[in-house]
């Protein structure tokens, strides 16, 4: 904890992490009251911005089409601040894009298949890359356990699914497949707000 003494009054700050963000080094023990107030205003401002990225992400998770002005009003900061933080989140690939959430079933893709694959060890990266190129494979995971890859596909019917599986098994690098068809989708494409307690 940091103690700052001013005019005989000692205040204690429990926010050393916030101070480290300022880049300020306190090399004087005593500050006059106006200096102290200025320092604490700076710290409060930095604390607000420290949480801004999280709040910004959560706003966009709830409404990916929210305007910069609307977000700025909701978070009580300037539009320029929101724009700068959003640009930083995109540049660092924390926010990787904006896309609609599609109900594939409404478009005729009624069959969801979870496909587990055993792959020749050295071929794993190549097989994973090829699966990513398949348009109806919406998720591809390299996993531990009895299988090497789990992939999720969407199909119009079981015939289309079976044709896809036959194509997979014709790949010399794939040794075995095990397919489960989803009977009921309880939850899908869900995202969670950052900072929420489990």
Counted by DSSP, the helix tally is 7
Largest beta-sheet details: 4 strands, antiparallel
Overall 3D shape = elongated
Low-pLDDT ranges:
1-31, 33-47
Distance between the termini: 29 Å
Question: Would you write up a description of this structure?
Answer:
This protein is an alpha+beta fold and 198 residues long. It has 2 domains: 2-91, no CATH class; 104-181, Alpha-Beta Plaits. Helix content is 39%, strand content 20%. It contains 7 helices and 6 strands. The protein has helices spanning 16-22, 33-50, 52-62, 68-75, 79-91, 124-132, 158-169; strands spanning 2-6, 9-13, 111-119, 137-142, 149-155, 174-181. The strands form 2 sheets. Strands 4-5-3-6 form a 4-stranded antiparallel β-sheet, with helices on one face. It has a two-stranded antiparallel ribbon with strand order 1-2. A hairpin with a 2-residue loop joins strand 1 (2-6) and strand 2 (9-13). Helix 1 (16-22) crosses helix 2 and helix 4 (68-75) packs across helix 5. The chain is elongated and about 55 Å long.
Write the layout of secondary structure elements.
Layout: E1 2-6, E2 9-13, H1 16-22, H2 33-50, H3 52-62, H4 68-75, H5 79-91, E3 111-119, H6 124-132, E4 137-142, E5 149-155, H7 158-169, E6 174-181
Antiparallel strand pairs: 1-2, 3-5, 3-6, 4-5
Helix pairs in contact: 1-2, 4-5
């Amino acid at each position: 904890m940091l103690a700052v003494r001013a005019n005989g009054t000692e205040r204690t700050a429990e926010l050393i992490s916030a101070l480290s963000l300022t880049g300020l080094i306190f090399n004087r023990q005593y500050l006059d009251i106006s200096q102290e107030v200025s320092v604490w205003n700076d710290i409060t401002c930095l604390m607000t911005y420290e949480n801004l990225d999280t709040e910004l992400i959560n706003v966009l998770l709830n409404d990916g089409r929210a305007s910069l002005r609307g977000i700025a009003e909701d978070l009580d900061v300037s539009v320029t601040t929101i724009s700068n933080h959003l640009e930083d989140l995109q540049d660092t690939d924390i926010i990787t894009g904006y896309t609609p959430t599609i109900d594939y079933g409404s478009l005729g893709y009624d069959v969801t298949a979870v496909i587990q694959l055993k792959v020749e060890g050295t071929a794993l990266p190549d097989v994973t890359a090829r699966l990513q190129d398949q348009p109806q494979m919406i998720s591809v995971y390299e996993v531990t356990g009895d299988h090497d890859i789990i992939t999720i596909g969407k199909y119009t019917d079981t015939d289309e699914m079976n044709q896809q599986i036959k194509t997979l098994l014709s790949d010399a690098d794939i040794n075995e497949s095990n397919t489960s068809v989803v009977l009921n989708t309880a939850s899908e494409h869900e995202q969670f707000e950052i900072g929420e307690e489990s």
